[in-house]
Structure formats: structure tokens, C-alpha cells
Amino acid sequence: MSRKAKNIAYWITTALVAFFIGSGGVAQVARVQGTVDGFVHILGYPLYFVTILGVWKVLGAIAILVPRFPRLKEWAYAGIFFDLTGAAASSASVGIYGAYGFHILAPLIIAGLTVASWALRPQSRTIGVLFPVTSDRPV
């Protein structure tokens, strides 16, 4: 994949993830009725948890969009991935699958986009090589 194609793919996946996570976070902070019903009445989470997750989602969406802060981005990507896989697991555990498994598949698809965005990051948005290979050490 060329550098330009990789950069375009990165921004498309990142924009989609930021949109889905950010808009969901805003709905949770604003306590939109459908969101509150799903979390509190169907999944059984306390109401304050909806607000906490909403704030974290908005901050995570901002973190993956802004330049610099590579360590913060790592944490944001991890948090978004955990949130989405947890959402799928929560829906599965209470037996709420939705039409064609929507409540399980949608978060897992967005989690896949999150992993793609993380993997496609430009070098300027990464922490760096964790374990550099040098010629002095055997591989």
C-alpha cells in the first residue's frame, strides 16, 4: 500500500470511529432517552455510568483526531476498543441481539475500524518502536 493510500485509509477509518464514538458519547452525556433506556432498563447499568462513558467517549474521539500526544492516543484507542467489545458482550449477555444481530455486530465492526485506524496511523502519531532491533543483538 502506498503512503498516500495508507494515509487516506487512516483518515477514513479514524473519521468513522471518531464520528460513531463521539456522537454516541454526546448522546450519553445529553442523556438521550433511547440511550438511557438501553443502558439502564435493558442492560441494567446505573444512570451515572451512562454519563461517565459518554464523557470518556467524547474525550477519546477528540484524542484520536488531534495531532501529537501519541501515548494519549494509545490509551484512547484501547479504551474505545474495550468499550465496543464490552458493548457487544453486554448485549449478548442479556440476550439483546437486535435484528440480524445488530447489537452485537455493529460494535464489533466499529471495533474492527478502530483496530484498522490504530494500525494505519502515520509514524508521527505513534509512540515509536517499542523493541528496536539492532545488529548487535541476535534476533
From TrEMBL:
Annotated Gene Ontology cellular component terms: membrane
| Superkingdom of source | Bacteria
Q: What is this entry's stated membrane topology?
A: Multi-pass membrane protein
**Keywords, A to Z?**
Membrane, Transmembrane, Transmembrane helix
Whether Transmembrane counts among this entry's keywords is yes
Location comes to: Membrane
A Pfam family hit: DoxX_2
Q: Which InterPro entries match?
A: DoxX, UCP030066
UniProt protein name: DoxX family protein
User: What is the species listed in this Swiss-Prot or TrEMBL entry?
Assistant: Edaphobacter paludis
